[in-house]
Design brief:
Elements: H1 2-16, H2 18-21, E1 34-37, E2 43-44, E3 53-55, E4 58-62, E5 72-73, H3 76-82, E6 90-92, E7 115-117, H4 132-138, E8 153-154, E9 160-164, H5 170-180, H6 192-196, E10 211-219, E11 228-237, E12 248-255, H7 266-278, E13 285-291, E14 295-303, H8 307-315, H9 325-337, E15 345-352, H10 363-376, E16 378-384, H11 392-401, E17 406-408, H12 412-421, H13 423-427, E18 431-440, E19 445-450, E20 471-473, E21 478-487, E22 496-503, E23 511-516, H14 531-546, H15 557-568, H16 572-589
Parallel strand pairs: 12-13, 12-15, 15-16, 16-17
Antiparallel strand pairs: 1-23, 2-5, 3-4, 6-7, 8-19, 9-18, 10-11, 11-21, 13-14, 18-20, 18-22, 19-21, 22-23
């Protein structure tokens, strides 16, 4: 209780100090990237030499020059280090945030003053380990998968945090629906990165290349240790110019099984599709395929010049029968493959509750089929509807494997956002297989943990393995990742390097960009950080509480509410989070 009171008081004071010193906008892009094109998995960029603190009034403000990369051959020691499981790191931390066993396969030591070692988190937390079907069967709720919680990692044992980009926000939308309906969301439904990336952030535009990278850090509200910081890495994708947007060929794959008969399922899906059609261009085209007990091509490829004909086909759909999802996907892919042309987009959009109960309905069997079609150029996005019998894992992994995005639509307002204001990002891709790797320099960093991204983890050794699938980023998309970092010194030199690897559409070789972590503003209090960082921290803290993260032990609804209210401004979207925190606090207090 004493620790929690001290934390609340400290944060309240920090927030109160922000009025005069608050930056008007988030920071601009910190550095011009050093880029190199490579497809060699064995090349390891030489770590950047640390810089020095330059401003005596802001001891943590760093201005670091960008040296040219000097790739060196990867040594055997480096390879061995990369393969050491993070969870076998020896725990040795006093005060602040001790290493905590998550209860999902992790051993553990006490909060704040633990000395010991972590046990294995288990393959269930890694997307490349246990099969999806097995993870679902082991979950205490078959409709969601518990991917565990990322551990604290000692930088001297594993200095690399490697993960795939994720711009989905379905987890947040489903949680919002539950709270608005007076229910607490299931903890396994909550994916922190999807909460954080559900909100807009005022990042500067990308000028050269596909991305602009922004960094900022401040003391962590998760810990009272004076050396612990929350680090935000924000990536802004460039917008797509109209002349770059080629024709789009969509194949709607609509689940018309009996489970889709509820008003929040097929009827809402039909309204959503009609809104999408209103935002497409005459040179685009649409085909409609359905699946229930059997599959059917309701409408072959039809130009948007005949939009009313397409709308009639959508409006004619009705629900009934069981669910042969596997066969429906096969038929949709065959239909979509007819539209493969250079410079054109051919994408399947699956509208379903994710339930598959007839034919080749094994989740793993269905997922195995997708990769070949993706390599041919047909991508797949999923849009979820309804809550009763909704299968979140199936819909999320279909989109991940299909090189598309995953959305959950709980209202027509959400449909207008996904299929309206964010349509370009929904349908187009400017960077494929996007991977991030943050290297924490052990001479300056004691421990770190990435907050979220548990099911987007990529093995460190696979960062430059372009055969390993990763995330796709569309025009205008923002990707935000938060880290909690315990520094060895309160006034550190440059302590990390960010690398982004991606493949441009139509290309086969990857481009890698390196961004020495040029911390333009590292504040001594969270209250002096930008509203962008404060709000992202509030969102992440809220998600940590909802998913019952072991690292939320000393967080509270009041704490995240205070930070959210002070940084939300007049944004309706951000004010929505404030209301959801209040709703969750009320529901939680009722038991």
């Amino acid at each position: 209780m004493t620790r929690r009171l001290a934390l609340l008081c400290a944060l309240s004071l920090a927030v109160a100090c922000q009025t005069e010193n608050q930056p008007k906008t988030s920071e601009h892009a910190d550095v011009e990237p050093v880029t190199q094109e490579t497809s060699e998995a064995s090349v390891e960029p030489k770590p950047v030499e640390p810089g020095e603190a330059t401003d005596p009034m802001e001891a943590l403000k760093l201005v670091v020059d960008t040296p040219e990369p000097k790739p060196i051959a990867q040594t055997e020691d480096t390879k061995e280090e990369k393969d050491i499981p993070k969870l076998k790191a020896q725990a040795s931390q006093v005060g602040g945030l001790g290493l905590i066993g998550s209860g999902r396969g992790g051993g553990g030591v006490g909060y704040g003053h633990g000395v010991g070692s972590l046990g294995s988190r288990g393959t269930g937390a890694r997307i490349g380990g246990r099969s999806l079907g097995d993870r679902i069967s082991r979950s205490n709720n078959p409709d969601f998968v518990d991917y565990g919680t990322n551990p604290v990692v000692r930088a001297e044992v594993d200095r690399f945090a490697t993960f795939a980009a994720d711009v989905d926000n379905a987890s947040y939308t489903m949680a919002r629906r539950a709270l608005n309906e007076g229910r607490m969301p299931h903890p396994s439904l909550v994916r922190v990165e999807e909460f954080v990336n559900a909100f807009p952030y005022n990042y500067g535009v990308a000028k050269d290349g596909p991305f602009a990278v922004h960094t900022e850090a401040a003391p962590s509200p998760f810990s009272t240790d004076p050396n612990t910081r929350i680090l935000r890495v924000g990536v802004q994708a460039r917008e797509l110019e109209k002349k770059e947007r080629g024709p789009v060929h969509l194949t709607f794959l609509v689940d018309v099984s009996g489970s889709m008969s509820r008003p929040d399922k097929l009827p809402l899906a039909q309204r959503a599709l009609n809104h999408l059609l209103d935002n497409m261009r005459p040179e685009d085209s649409v085909a409609v395929v359905t699946y229930a007990s059997s599959t059917k091509v309701v409408l072959p490829k039809t130009s948007l010049a005949q939009k009313e004909r397409i709308k009639d086909a959508v409006d004619s759909l009705s629900a009934g029968g069981s669910t042969a999802m596997g066969e429906g996907l096969e038929l949709a892919y065959r239909e979509a493959a007819k539209n493969l042309q250079p410079g054109h987009v051919s994408r399947i959009i699956v509208l379903s509750d994710g339930d598959a109960n007839v034919g080749s309905s094994s989740h793993d069997e269905i997922l195995k089929r997708i990769r070949g079609y993706v390599q041919e150029g047909v991508t797949l996005s999923t849009v979820g509807f309804g809550m009763r019998s909704f299968k979140d894992p199936m819909m999320e992994q279909l989109a991940n494997k299909g090189d598309g995005n995953y959305a959950y639509i709980d209202s027509f307002e959400e449909a207008k956002r996904f299929f309206g204001s964010e349509l370009d990002g929904t349908l187009h891709v400017i960077a494929k297989d996007v991977k991030f790797q943050v290297e924490f320099h052990p001479e300056h960093v004691e421990t770190y943990r990435i907050i979220g991204y548990e099911n987007r983890e990529v093995a460190d050794k696979d960062f430059r393995n372009d055969a390993v699938d990763a995330g796709e980023v569309g025009p205008g998309h923002r990707v935000t990742a938060l880290f909690e970092v315990k520094l060895k010194h309160r006034e550190p030199a440059q302590f990390a390097t960010v690398r982004i690897r991606h493949i441009e559409p139509g290309q086969t070789s990857a481009i890698e960009s390196r961004y020495p972590l040029h911390l333009h503003r590292v504040r001594t209090t969270l209250g002096h950080a930008s509203h962008e960082l404060q709000f992202a921290v509030a969102v992440a803290g809220f998600a940590e509480i909802l998913r019952k993260s072991p690292y939320a032990k000393d967080l509270s609804y009041d704490l995240v509410l205070e930070v959210a209210e002070s940084s939300a401004g007049s944004s309706a979207k951000r004010r929505e989070l404030v209301d959801l925190i209040k709703a969750a606090k009320r529901l939680d207090s009722q038991g």
